[in-house]
Amino acid sequence: MPFAWTKDLELGIDEIDEQHRELFRRAERLYHAMRQGQPPAAEAMLASFRDFVLSHFEFEERWMRRVGFPGLEAHRKAHREFADRLHAVTGEYRRHGPVPAVADTLREWSEAWLLEHIGGPDRMLGNWAADNDAAPAR
Ligand SMILES: [Fe+2]
Ligand SMILES: [Fe+2]
Question: Which residue of 45, 92, 111, 125 has the lowest C-beta tally within 10 Å?
Fold first, then answer.
């Protein structure tokens, strides 16, 4: 199953874990809408995924800034690269529509990126926050 959530992705910080699960849910809905070639649904899911990705990135970056996380710049750069790539895939979608090739491209890189990012930089941030008693706040 694409974008299957597994327990080992949890960082033990409820608010962040819930946002990551929501990212997976929206990515999965987007993938299916694109795979099934439903333009209005795919368009709506693409916007919903993109909005959530950007607000999640902003949330983490605000958190890092507030608590003085030393890896902020590298982490932000990783977020920006994902956002840029998502923008490029959106362009591809606009040119070709919700065809299986676009759906599969989106799935392959975004799934790999999310797994790598949550398991890497996000986990490092979570560990650092736990060690420094620096929980996220709205
Ligand atoms: Fe992140
Ligand atoms: Fe994250």
Answer: 92
SS3 69: coil
Would you list the domain boundaries of the chain? 12-130
Task: State the ligand closest to the CA atom of 71.
Answer: 1
> How remote is the CA of residue 77 from the centroid of ligand 1, in Å?
10
pLDDT category at 98 given cuts 50, 70, 90 is confident
- Helix (H) / strand (E) element for 91: namely helix 72-96
Q: Model confidence over 21-38: pLDDT tens digits?
A: 999 999 999 999 999 988
Class of domain 12-130: mainly alpha
Ligand nearest 53 Cα, by number?
2
Q: Which protein residues have a CB closer than 5 Å to ligand 1 (ion)?
A: 60, 122
What pLDDT score does 38 carry? 84
